[in-house]
Amino acid sequence: MEYLIPAGKTQAGKQTILENIVNISGPDNLISINGYLTGMAEYDFWANWRNKSEIEKKAIDSVKKAMALVIGSVPQNALVAIYIKGSFARREMKEGSDVDMVPIVAENKYEGAVFGVNSPEIEPVCVVPLSLWEFRHNKLFTKGNYTPDLRAEPDLFLKKLDEFKLIYGQPLDAAQFPIREDRGIMRSEIHKIREGYIPAYREGVIDFLPLLKEVFWLAELEQALKGKRPGHSFNGIVKSVNSTHIAHAAFGLRKKRVHNKAEEKRFISQLNRYLAELENLV
Q1: What's the mean pLDDT in 181-200?
Q2: For residues 141 and 144, what is the distance between their CA atoms, to the nearest angstrom?
Q3: CA 97 to CA 89: how far, in whole Å?
Q4: Which letter, b or e, does each residue of 258-270 get, where b requires 16 or more Cβ atoms within 10 Å of its Cβ?
Q5: Model confidence over 51-62: pLDDT tens digits?
Q6: Are 50 and 161 contained in the same domain?
Q7: Does residue 102 belong to any structural domain of this protein?
Q8: Domains in the chain: how many in total?
Q9: DSSP H helical ranges for the chain
Q10: Does the residue 254 lie in any domain?
């Protein structure tokens, strides 16, 4: 696919780019920035959504702005694709949810410029790029702020690639990159939650919600090891397990707008028991 934004146009400032979005939802899936058309791929996956919530409408506007800024932040040949993942793509957004935008860049050196588009003007979109180098080596180029690293390894993105929405560029071929088998991922995730997420929460480095979300993906991986393939959504995961599974407790806490420290403490005790059970699987 050829992108018709000349190199000299891609370095425009954020405000200039936003002011010159001429046709962000025009015919033939094209977007016009500064008068130049760039080919898109399934960028408007939300177009046929019925009964969009106000949260979703705001998210859609922010996705359009963020996409334009990402496209304008790097040279034409540096941007491979842009994906959307997370609760917005699954239509599970609630108040306070982020929209996860993952631009794929050709080289590590472009990640800083892409990450730099994050600002209040595109909230709730959070732009976190990945590079082809990171996929090839299955490790992140930048250093994390916590040990063990709480960020997901690149192959976890590739494993769920079919669940994400391509909004720009060429789709990745997951088969071209190394991906760990599920048991290895499970061992890594148990360690990351026990030695990373739980201590980070107790130290105030992260709040409760990121820890809560990890439990859903751990439950999804557990079901995969048991030969089941639940839908990649909070609802799908909860429906795939019995009523006493920790995923139900996580789902109940996620739905509550406010929960107290006592509830969180009880949940973490339950989580530690769950981690011990999972170790028997691997």
Answers
A1: 98
A2: 9
A3: 12
A4: eeeeeebeebbee
A5: 999 999 999 999
A6: yes
A7: yes
A8: 2
A9: 14-19, 54-71, 87-90, 111-115, 132-137, 154-159, 182-192, 198-202, 208-225, 234-239, 246-255, 261-279
A10: yes
Range of the domain at 88: 7-176
Same-domain status, 97 and 171: yes
Share of the chain above pLDDT 90, in %: 79
Tokens 């500064």 -> residue: 34
Query: Whole-model pTM?
Result: 0.84
Tell me the angle at which helices 261-279 and 246-255 cross, rounded to the nearest 10 degrees: 150
Shared-domain flag, residues 212 and 105: no
- Asked which of 176, 193, 222 is the last residue of a domain, the reply is 176
Report the 10 Å Cβ neighbour count for 60. 18
pLDDT digits (tens, 9 = 90+) for 90-134: 999 999 899 999 999 999 999 999 999 999 999 999 999 999 999
Whether 182 contacts 225, CB under 8 Å:
yes
Where residue 47 falls among pLDDT bands split at 50, 70, 90?
A: very high
The answer to the question of residue 247 being in a domain is yes
